[in-house]
Amino acid sequence: MSDVVVGLDFGSSRIKAAAYGRDGALLRSSAVETPLRPGQATTGDGFPVLACLDAAADALARLALPAGTIRALGLSSMGEVGTVLSGGALAGWDFPSWYGRVGAEIEESLVAGFGRKRLAAATGNHTVLVSTVAKLGGMLSGRGRVSGTFLGLCGAFAWQLTGQVWQEAGLATTSGVFDPVGGEYLTELWEYVGLADVELPPVREPGFSAPARTGLARRLGLSADARVVIAGHDHPVGTVGAGVQPGERADSLGTGQAILARVEPHRLEPVREALLADPGLSLEVWPDGGGVLAVWGPLRPGLAMRTFLSATASTREQLDEQAPPPGQSDVLDPEIAVAMEQGDASAVTGSAVQWASLIDYYVLRAVAARRWLGDLTGADGTTVLTGGGLRSVRWRHAHALLSDAPLAVSTVSETGTRGAAGIAGSVVDWWGSAAQMPGATRIEVPAGDLAQMDRAARALFGAG
Helices 104-114 and 132-140 sit at what angle, rounded to 10 degrees? Predict the structure, then answer.
């Protein structure tokens, strides 16, 4: 086999790896379940970090690539999950899940101490419950002195492969103490919640890489001159992998739903002002060469649907088939949807009508957000749909019928791994940028065209 570049994506449910050739073709892929320790109501679920790193190594090993053929490895992950490197070893923590309540008191403390508006403007709206500062501060509260350097999953795995410590700017924003526009940590926030003894990793420029020099790197098939790059946060990296270009918007349908658009430079100030009015809007960094990225992501449709399905004997497929067509049932009360996101099934009737109302609620929220985000950022081009939510017939039909503009569906099957591999390939000069990686495909879907939407789903998933 010729040399390959590999993308690896740490997700909430699975850790995926995929190898790509110079022509952009997907050559091999693998996936393992993301280790998770179910928690109690007060602690929530936790990700055992060392087990997650072992699972990542397993996902790479399952590619069964000949020794020395991996030229570059790109890493992507969910945001805040990580551990501390101290004395040459990584702490074996169960890190609180992003969707749990651990860290709520830390968020409240920061808001009380600095003010919501000041935090929003300084950190791009990232000093919130899902941030590293909230989760880590909440987890370590009452544990006594902990020292070392915080490393997210990508940083920890990169350290295992290279022996070097660094962070990528997009993932740094998820710390809740990083200015995505100025490019600096706001250490006073970190220290305010008792984390002064935990150092933050240095943030390197986009595309920074380090040589893979460890024994683990050799065992996993990385060549002697292979480069390891932290590609970035999963949604932005997946946007790159889906082939979304600056000027377009991406809408990722999954456990969490994120709508993303790169900010035109002349629109930066209005976007920063909008942060103060909408806590669902945040700023990150475009992982393919830099630039400010606007992300609107307060919706958690996958969590709400999971709660709904747990309270009914019907399957998703049965509910999709029995549900009224889009727009023909009342939209679900937002308070009920939010309660479902938080695991509260008390209002779930289990009926196909309520299932339709739940889906339509999320689709209409997304349609309005796409329009608003395009006007705000100057990215008024095509909206590209991605994500596993397109498997649901009822969900994708709602997007086709309720959207107010034509759509496109990316037919890239694993956008996260492809985006990470694309960034890795640009590091070793296989292509000038991740956007130039061959192989991104999409199908245009005119408004209301259900047949075309289904064709796009078949092209993406092979069925449906």
Answer: 120
